[in-house]
């Protein structure tokens, strides 16, 4: 018997059941092998008197005894598995677990025997507390660990953070990669962007579902995952970990896992914010509710602010708060009201500020709400409102009958203070960027070109962050026809994108994404100079090279061949097909 055979019989000897080794020994030391085999069959066969007379029938039909025993064995195993699952649900709690523990004690020595292993695993799965000794044996054997149910693994993980970390780590990497792939996707659209999927849809994602399954109802494991997410957020500053923090809690909420939801102090706040994210707007009723949670943080419990700030730092939350802020500002213009007089607007700023301060708060472990700069409310926001007024005034002027003085030009300068705010104040920068996205979406070319120069230098380079560039490239597709104008392209590419391309690989990628989508609209001379300017360097990553090659291929297809340029084909010949701009 080879090692495979040995595994098949693993543990039988300990139970006093004869195995292949015993038969081998019997046959080696006997004088009459046939008699010895017959005796072995009698002693170890199925001990049913009525069966003895029936077995010769099977022999007449040429059915091997192995096949017969195997089918009986499979049938019995199925019955046993059903019985184990039934025991786990019947009678008093102590009694049913006592039965299962006894069964585990009897069967555990056969856990490595492939045919019996499912039964042992099933017994362990139904035990809320598998004896420590057995768990250690499972943990020490790679194959056993792999084969055991997630219910058993949870019991192992809760006392082995490192092992749990090894299981969770690849999932977290996959999650971040999926987010980045979405941000850099080649499909550029104003309708389907990073923020399009609803919270409920996002929670169906593979990683969130797997983590939810791994955690089950185990608060200890949930806390471990949150600790991993906090640590990774601190180490990388990657805000997608904040999204996962909220998604995981809401996924457990969907499954009504009260064991965890009731002990997470952020649950109700996250639930309310989740509804706002779904609507992409914070309405008055929910604003009151959210404010209640923030005002309700008691003395001595300030640490919860660290968790709340992480929930608010989720890009989906920031997106909702920023969009709501822009909407409020427009409403205030119509109502002749100043920002400082709007409690709803002040609450949005308070939450934005808490979200944007998440990293500093968790890093410093100083749990108090960041101070709001008065100038943000008294100077910056009124300035944004004045831009809205400029647009209204310009539009009205355009409609008035023109007199001798000629048309009034669109204001082209921006207040120095606006640029300074974008450079020095994080919240102002975030709101300013969302205002620029808003005017781009409205196809307001004048306002866009006026404010664009302020984006070259922003707080911590926020204007060159992936989320902003992803949204901006999507919105720019609405201004597609403007790309035929040299001046527009010079302002956009030379004045903004190319200022950062060489030092920021991600910007290089976003520009190439945009051109792949809009190259047929760009003025040919400009396209040529852009192609030169965007050529990858030796230091460029694979993604940039790949995008550049795709762009080059598309541009090659558009070039007419030399033959077409020199000869005018006669009408009888079929005209050469040149790809139309639509078939990009």
From TrEMBL:
GO biological process: negative regulation of transcription elongation by RNA polymerase II
UniProt xrefs under InterPro entries: COBRA1
Domain of life of the organism encoding this protein: Eukaryota
GO cellular component: NELF complex
Residues covered by region (Disordered): 558-584
Pfam families: COBRA1
Name recorded for this polypeptide: NELFB factor
Gene that this sequence comes from: Nelfb
């Amino acid at each position: 018997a080879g090692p495979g055979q040995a595994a098949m019989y693993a543990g039988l000897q300990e139970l006093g059941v004869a195995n292949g080794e015993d038969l081998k020994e019997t046959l080696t030391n006997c004088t009459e092998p046939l008699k010895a085999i017959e005796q072995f069959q009698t002693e170890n066969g199925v001990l049913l008197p009525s069966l003895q007379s029936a077995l010769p029938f099977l022999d007449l039909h040429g059915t091997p005894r192995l096949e017969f025993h195997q089918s009986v064995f499979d049938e019995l195993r199925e019955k046993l598995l059903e019985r184990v699952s039934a025991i786990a649900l019947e009678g008093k709690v102590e009694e049913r677990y006592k039965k299962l523990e006894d069964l585990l004690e009897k069967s555990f020595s056969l856990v490595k025997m492939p045919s019996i292993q499912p039964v042992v695993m099933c017994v362990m799965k139904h035990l809320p507390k598998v004896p420590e000794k057995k768990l250690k044996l499972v943990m020490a054997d790679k194959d056993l660990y792999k084969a055991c149910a997630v219910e058993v693994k949870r019991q192992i993980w809760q006392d082995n953070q490192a092992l749990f970390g090894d299981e969770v780590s690849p999932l977290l990497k996959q999650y971040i990669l999926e987010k980045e792939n979405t941000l850099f996707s080649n499909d550029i659209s104003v309708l389907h962007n990073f923020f399009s999927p609803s919270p409920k849809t996002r929670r169906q994602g593979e990683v969130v579902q797997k983590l939810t399954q791994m955690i089950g109802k185990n608060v200890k494991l949930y806390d471990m995952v949150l600790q991993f997410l906090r640590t990774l957020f601190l180490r990388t500053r990657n805000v997608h970990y904040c999204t996962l923090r909220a998604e995981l809690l809401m996924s457990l909420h969907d499954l009504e896992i009260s064991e965890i939801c009731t002990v997470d102090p952020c649950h109700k706040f996250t639930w309310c914010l989740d509804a706002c994210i779904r609507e992409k707007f914070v309405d008055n009723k929910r604003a009151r509710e959210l404010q209640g949670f923030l005002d309700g943080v008691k003395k001595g419990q300030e640490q919860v602010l660290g968790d709340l700030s992480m929930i608010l730092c989720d890009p989906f939350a920031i997106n909702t708060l920023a969009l709501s802020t822009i909407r409020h500002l427009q409403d205030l213009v119509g109502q002749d009201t100043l920002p400082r007089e709007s409690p709803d607007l002040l609450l949005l700023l308070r939450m934005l500020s808490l979200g944007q301060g998440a990293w500093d708060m968790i890093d410093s472990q100083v749990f108090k709400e960041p101070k709001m700069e008065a100038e943000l409310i008294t100077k910056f926001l009124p300035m944004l409102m004045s831009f809205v007024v400029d647009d209204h005034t310009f539009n009205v002027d355009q409609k008035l009958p023109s007199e001798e003085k000629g048309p009034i030009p669109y204001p082209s300068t921006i207040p120095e203070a606006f640029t300074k705010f974008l450079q020095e104040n994080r919240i102002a920068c975030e709101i300013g960027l969302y205002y620029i996205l808003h005017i781009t979406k409205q196809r307001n070319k004048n306002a866009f070109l006026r404010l664009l120069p302020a984006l070259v230098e922003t707080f911590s380079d926020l204007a060159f962050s992936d989320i902003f560039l992803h949204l901006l490239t999507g919105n720019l597709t609405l201004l597609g026809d403007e790309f035929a104008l040299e001046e527009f392209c010079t302002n956009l590419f030379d004045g903004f994108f190319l200022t950062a391309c060489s030092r920021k690989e991600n910007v290089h990628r976003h520009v190439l994404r945009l051109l792949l989508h809009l190259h047929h609209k760009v003025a040919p001379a400009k396209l040529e100079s852009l192609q030169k300017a965007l050529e990858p360097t030796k230091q460029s990553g694979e993604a940039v090279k790949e995008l550049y090659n795709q762009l080059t291929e598309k541009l090659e297809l558009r070039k007419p061949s030399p033959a077409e340029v020199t000869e005018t084909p006669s009408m009888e010949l079929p005209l050469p097909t040149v790809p139309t701009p639509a078939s990009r």
